[in-house]
Write a structure and sequence with these properties.
By secondary structure, this protein is α/β, with parallel strands linked by helices. It contains ten helices and nine strands. It has a four-stranded mixed β-sheet with strand order 6-9-7-8, with no helix packed on it. Strands 1-2-4 form a three-stranded antiparallel β-sheet. The radius of gyration is 23 Å and the shape is elongated.
Length: about 325
């Protein structure tokens, strides 16, 4: 897309004519080079430059293209960011720009409402978030999104809490560890699915659903099943180890496996037959609310201390 030419415009922009030209260039390239387009916005150093480049980007991109763009998770995130930048700069510019920016904001909101279910631009590859997707006070090492499609794992409840946003973000080492765990587990030939839930939010920020998951080094997973299926098998019942589908032997073998791979792991899971087994003493622990899933803390991750080991009854 002539990346060198585009990047050369970025240094010391502060010019509406330059942002207009850059925004127009990016609008032409938006679908063919979506990730590169996002990267160019990431290189812009000020809200001013991002707002005006985004304004001309939206203004010059046809609705049909914007709608396709909005259906990719990366494109959707870019549109949300442009809307935020434009809204901030609107108050600074005043005058006619207030009306112009409002038109762009409404167009973005309309497109986002129509986008529907989102897909990854490259669902099989790890996505590295751009700086503008990470909150200013976030840890920029927690910026890698687990691919939604994996040959050796299944994901569940992805990004299920709307107000908190992305929830399968970790450090690169964590994503690579999950891939390794999935690969080794599949090689065991049990046929039991490795189901992965929450990891962390972008930047490791607090989440309303958890007391942890803030360091990008832990993940939730469902216990192993004995029926070759995945997901919640009983719509009205919680997914706990007390159900007939639960395979205690496979679950215990899975824990043994990751202990061999990562000796310093901590596992929170409330099956008494496992956490009270001397073999698992010291690293498999009881924790409130962990009846329906395992919480795996990888090396360097933060243990959950507040309610650890407090058993009911």
């Amino acid at each position: 897309m002539g990346g060198t030419r585009l990047k050369s415009r970025i240094s010391g922009m502060k010019s509406i004519s330059i942002t207009e030209s850059l925004g127009t260039d990016l609008s032409v390239q938006s679908l063919s080079y979506l990730l590169a387009v996002c990267q160019v916005f990431d290189l812009l150093s000020s809200v001013y430059d991002r707002a005006f480049t985004g304004y001309y980007f939206i203004k010059n991109t046809p609705d049909a293209v914007l709608l396709r763009l909005a259906r990719y998770k990366q494109g959707n995130a870019l549109l949300i960011s442009i809307n935020r930048w434009v809204d901030r700069e609107k108050l600074t510019q005043g005058g006619n720009w207030v009306g112009e920016f409002k038109i762009v904001e409404e167009r973005i909101r309309t497109i986002l409402r129509q986008a529907g279910q989102l897909i990854n631009y490259n669902p099989h590859g790890v996505r590295e978030l751009y700086d503008y997707e990470i909150p200013p006070n976030g840890n920029k090492e927690i910026r890698f999104e687990l691919p939604e499609e994996g040959a050796d794992y299944v994901i569940y409840n992805r990004n299920d809490v709307q107000k908190d946003g992305l929830d399968q973000i970790g450090t690169l080492e964590t994503i690579q560890a999950i891939w390794k765990i999935a690969e080794v587990w599949k090689s065991k030939g049990t046929g039991a699915y490795f189901e992965i839930g929450d990891i962390s939010r972008a930047g490791g920020l607090d989440t309303s659903e958890h007391e942890s998951h803030e360091d990008g080094k832990a993940f939730d997973m469902r216990a192993m099943r004995n029926d070759g299926g995945f997901g919640k098998p009983f719509a009205l019942d919680p997914n706990t180890f007390e159900h007939p589908w639960y395979h205690r032997i496979y679950t215990a073998n899975f824990i043994r496996m990751i202990k061999q791979l990562y000796p310093s792991i901590i596992v929170y899971f409330n099956d008494k037959n496992i956490y009270d087994n001397p073999e698992f003493s010291g690293y498999v622990k009881y924790m409130e609310k962990h009846f329906d899933h395992l919480h795996i803390v990888l090396p360097g991750g933060e243990r959950i201390i507040k309610k650890e080991g407090v058993k009911n009854g």
